[in-house]
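Please fill in the sequence for the structure shown.

STRUCTURE ENCODING:
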């Protein structure tokens, strides 16, 4: 017959909720989270306690890990030896523990990710620093509890003279919560403890004077201090950590990256596998080989860099795409009075100080009790020695020991404990020397008791004792920092950090296709060469612009609608010599039928520089470069164009330069930039050259102020003019006299049936290479020095052999590499020149509506 009185009806959801909560708390308290007092989880604490019971002390003998795991599992942690052993192994691994608590002998794994040997092959004993966790365990400093089967007692927590949770950190996943605490330097933590005892009102961030931040076992770098400040204040933070790497050049003049450490809790094998994967996927193309040369001297991972690659760029790519740089999320979650709690750094230090204060109180009370008990016995022995003959007679007269004890208590006023001590006293204690020892011990014990009582009465003396013990630990086990903190580094890798800073050739076609190519794509040819095919284009398309720029430069694209678009050179896709490239509309948001007409390349937005724009109808306009430093996705208005006009060129100037405008019919006008006043972006400009009938502007050249001075550089600079039929010449700058803005200009190249019309005009250097581009996509590169110098009003010489119906549409130059002196001058100039970085946000910019002041144009006589 079923007893229904024993059946309890419950809702299944209530039962499941309660059962899950019980399970969760069991995991949190008994498995996953460390105690804030000794920084250990139950499994770690039980392993160390089991080893202490086996007397595996530092300097002593080792024991098999199988024995340690067996005792731990059998006596305290009934979850199986296979669960205990991995915990024991981690406590002995120096790349996981900043201060290992166990000394291993045998194969305990490696930072490569290799597993340890089986527990039957490995041995272990405790480290010296671990004994500081166990110190005074036998002095009633902590509570003990029964083990799982109530056959033994185990400590609830260790007395812990060292702040283990802070110096070794902890990690674990509980139910609905996780902990991830970084290790710190013992010296810094001890100094912070002492400072906090001296000044309990110390602000949290003031602790940073003593604790610089985490100190990982394998060293490396922490990038920035924001994450450190965050977890100091709140107990949570994000640290950007990076392995230690440097660039070296071997005997063969080949660059190589040497990795000497990797981030905390990252395995070397996983890092190598990731690098190999990236190389195979061609996400990193500058690596030729990887070698692991690690040994007894430490880690040494060698990454060979290809000769045509930039080592710093490859290293930046490794930081970006591999775990050589990673994030460590700090969660200072631990058990505070048995309750999981996220604590900041000051609370952690205060909890340790409070725990040590409690330990010292209990230890002092324990020592006082023992001292008083011993003093009580010594007082009885002193009485016995003072009445020795009577004591002996009383003992001899007694029939049994209990009777002797009673008689002694009655005659001499002794306690039972004192009487027993007298009865147990050996005869040798009756000698004069032994009597003197008892008196000495008695006097010393009185002093000890006075000291202990004084310690119990004054908290400041107990705190002083904590400081002294902490300083002793610091001096005994402290060591220098291993992890460096780069305080000024924000930890952000910009996109250009992934790209080598090198010169490339950029081409833009008439139909709006753009690409970039290595500068060595074109081989140098002699004057009159046939050239190479630059791109496979449609019949109606041709390469309209070609120029050389750094991959880190900005490109300001100016369109026929008078708008400006912002682009980085590295954002232009790289393509082969014969490839067409990518449509600009896929890189910038051009409007329907909007075409790029001019461009400007620059390294930064220098407020002292200007952009001078020129239109087909001869209008010029000057606007500060800084006005273009805030782009937006839909472009910004750059110039106000009159009906029938279009933008043909834009150049960077420095305020005192000279401008040369060249026309289709071979005329040019040179005037000073100072005649153009700076205006806002959306303005019309002023007249630069007065055009003849059926003429229009084709080129604009800028002669900088440096070239106007008499120096060595001016002798190598000339004006190059080239016609549509491939004829050209160089002319000295001095041949072009300065007139006024708005002049009709003078002849620069005779235009006739042989030459055709003027195609382009450019300022060139004797040491430059010239690139000529034709309408059908043919390209030729030749030395500027091979082109003869003629007077201004001449026809020129043959520079390129054109196919039928083909003609020259543009030219550009490839500058020579500077020598050491020129490079030093450029570096010094870059250091002293102010610059304004462009905004990274595509923000809207208010369009200025300033009206351009109209200047009265003066007529100049036309040169015959």
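FILLED IN BY: designer on duty
SEQUENCE:
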């Amino acid at each position: 017959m079923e007893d229904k009185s024993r059946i309890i009806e419950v809702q299944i959801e209530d039962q499941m909720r309660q059962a899950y909560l019980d399970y969760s708390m069991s995991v949190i308290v008994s498995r996953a989270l460390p105690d804030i007092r000794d920084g250990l989880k139950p499994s770690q604490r039980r392993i160390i306690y089991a080893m202490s019971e086996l007397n595996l002390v530092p300097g002593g003998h080792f024991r098999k890990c199988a024995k340690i795991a067996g005792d731990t599992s059998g006596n305290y942690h009934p979850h199986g030896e296979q669960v205990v052993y991995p915990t024991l192994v981690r406590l002995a691994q120096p790349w996981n523990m900043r201060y290992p608590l166990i000394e291993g002998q045998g194969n305990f794994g490696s930072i490569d990710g290799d597993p340890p040997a089986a527990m039957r092959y490995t041995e272990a004993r405790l480290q010296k620093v671990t004994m500081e966790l166990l110190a005074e365990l036998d002095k009633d400093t902590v509570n003990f509890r029964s083990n799982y089967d109530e056959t033994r007692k185990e400590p609830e927590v260790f007395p812990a003279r060292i702040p283990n949770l802070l110096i070794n950190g902890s990690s674990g996943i509980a139910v609905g919560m996780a902990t991830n605490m970084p290790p710190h330097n013992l010296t810094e933590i001890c100094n912070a403890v002492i400072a906090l005892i001296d000044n309990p009102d110390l602000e949290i961030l003031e602790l940073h004077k003593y604790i610089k931040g985490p100190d990982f076992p394998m060293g490396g770098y922490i990038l920035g201090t924001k994450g450190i400040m965050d977890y100091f204040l709140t107990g949570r933070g994000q640290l950007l950590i990076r392995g230690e790497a440097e660039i070296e050049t071997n005997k063969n003049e080949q660059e190589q990256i040497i990795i000497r450490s990797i981030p905390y809790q990252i395995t070397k094998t996983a890092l190598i596998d990731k690098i190999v994967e990236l190389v195979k996927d061609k996400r990193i193309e500058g690596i030729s080989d990887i070698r692991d040369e690690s040994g007894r001297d430490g880690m040494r991972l060698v990454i060979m860099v290809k000769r045509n690659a930039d080592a710093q760029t490859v290293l930046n790519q490794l930081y970006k795409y591999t775990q050589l740089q990673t994030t460590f999320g700090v969660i200072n979650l631990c058990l505070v009075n048995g309750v999981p709690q996220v604590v900041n750094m000051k609370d952690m230090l205060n909890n340790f100080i409070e725990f040590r204060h409690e330990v010292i109180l209990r230890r002092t009370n324990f020592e006082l009790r023992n001292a008083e008990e011993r003093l009580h016995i010594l007082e009885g022995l002193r009485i016995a020695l003072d009445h020795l003959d009577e004591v002996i007679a009383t003992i001899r007269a007694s029939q049994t020991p209990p009777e002797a004890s009673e008689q002694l208590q009655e005659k001499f006023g002794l306690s039972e404990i004192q009487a027993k001590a007298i009865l147990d006293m050996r005869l040798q204690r009756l000698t004069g020397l032994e009597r003197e020892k008892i008196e000495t011990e008695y006097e010393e014990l009185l002093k000890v008791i006075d000291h202990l009582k004084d310690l119990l009465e004054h908290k400041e003396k107990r705190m002083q004792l904590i400081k002294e013990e902490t300083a002793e630990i610091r001096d005994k086990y402290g060591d220098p920092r291993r992890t460096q903190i780069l305080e000024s580094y924000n930890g952000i890798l910009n996109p250009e950090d992934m790209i080598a800073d090198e010169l490339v050739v950029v081409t833009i076609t008439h139909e709006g296709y753009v690409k970039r190519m290595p500068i060595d794509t074109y081989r140098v040819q002699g004057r009159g060469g046939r050239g190479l095919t630059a791109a496979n284009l449609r019949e109606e398309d041709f390469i309209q612009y070609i120029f050389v720029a750094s991959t880190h430069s900005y490109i300001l694209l100016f369109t026929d609608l008078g708008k400006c678009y912002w682009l980085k050179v590295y954002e232009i896709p790289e393509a082969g010599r014969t490839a067409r490239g990518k449509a600009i509309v896929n890189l910038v948001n051009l409007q329907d039928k909007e075409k790029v007409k001019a461009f400007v390349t620059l390294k930064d937005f220098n407020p002292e520089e200007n952009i001078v724009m020129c239109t087909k109808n001869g209008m010029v306009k000057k606007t500060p470069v800084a006005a273009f430093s805030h782009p937006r996705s839909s472009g910004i208005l750059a110039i106000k164009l009159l009906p029938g006009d279009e933008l043909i060129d834009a150049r960077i100037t420095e305020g005192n330069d000279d401008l040369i405008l060249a026309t289709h019919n071979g005329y040019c006008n040179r005037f000073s930039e100072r005649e153009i006043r700076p205006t806002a972006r959306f303005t019309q400009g002023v007249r630069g050259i007065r055009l003849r009938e059926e003429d229009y502007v084709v080129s604009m050249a800028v002669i900088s102020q440096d070239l106007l001075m008499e120096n060595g550089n001016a002798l190598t600079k000339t004006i190059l003019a080239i016609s549509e039929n491939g004829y050209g010449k160089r002319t000295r700058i001095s041949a072009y006299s300065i007139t006024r803005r708005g002049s009709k200009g003078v002849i620069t190249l005779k235009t006739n049936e042989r030459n055709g019309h003027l195609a382009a005009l450019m300022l060139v250097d004797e040491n430059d290479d010239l690139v000529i581009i034709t309408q059908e996509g043919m390209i030729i590169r030749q030395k500027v020095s091979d082109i003869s110098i003629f007077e201004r009003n001449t026809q020129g010489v043959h520079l390129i052999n054109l196919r039928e119906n083909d003609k020259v549409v543009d030219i550009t130059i490839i500058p020579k590499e500077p020598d050491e002196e020129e490079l030093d001058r450029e570096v010094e100039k870059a250091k002293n020149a102010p610059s304004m970085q462009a905004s990274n946000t595509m923000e809207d910019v208010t369009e200025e509506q300033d009206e351009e002041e109209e200047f009265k144009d003066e007529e100049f006589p036309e040169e015959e």
